[in-house]
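Final report, closing paragraph on structural work. Over the funding period we assembled a curated collection of sequence-structure pairs, and we close with a single example.
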Amino acid sequence: MSFQIDIGRRRMLCIRPAAAADAEMLARLFDQADGGLSRPRWAAAASPGQTPFAVGAAEIVSNRTRQALRDAWVAEDDGMVVGAILAYRMTPAIIGTDEPYAQLKMRVLGSWYIDSLAVLEGRRSSGVGRSLLHAADDAACHAGCNDLSLLVYDNNPAAAALYARCGFVQTHAHPLPSDHPTGARNIRLLQREASNSEH
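Its predicted structure, as stored:
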């Protein structure tokens, strides 16, 4: 299933489920979304001549980790992927053990959890992120989830502003170690009620 969204200036954005051919772009976007935390792990697993993003792409296509192709959607403009979102129902099996993330995720069991949202730098503030959030909202409603949730670092004001415009509010926060690789001081949990979005 895919659909078109009018983003103004006579441009239509296609929102569709991600395909295997999108996997390397997804790896780049998801690494961007999590502050570069995925890349060192992928680099450590890379064979000689293999890029970290090729490792990430293979992992995504395998559907064996939380960053699974089956849960990803992309925004496509004139045949080019310009953004992606990864979202799924939060269950105990997905929470993991990394703190403080696991502690915050425990608070939103059963919600439609937005794991990653990223937009290419040149396409930010053009309606792509908002369109992907609308797609997540629809998916939440179809899955029978009453609310959406996500985590955002406190040093990402642009993302926080987008989420606020889309109705997300902070419900909890947790401090991070002073040497956290993203440079953030806190991780914030945001939530909002799901609603049937009209496209």
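The beta strands are 3-6, 12-17, 72-77, 80-89, 112-119, 147-153, 169-175, 186-193. DSSP finds seven helices and eight strands in the chain. We thank the funder for supporting this effort.
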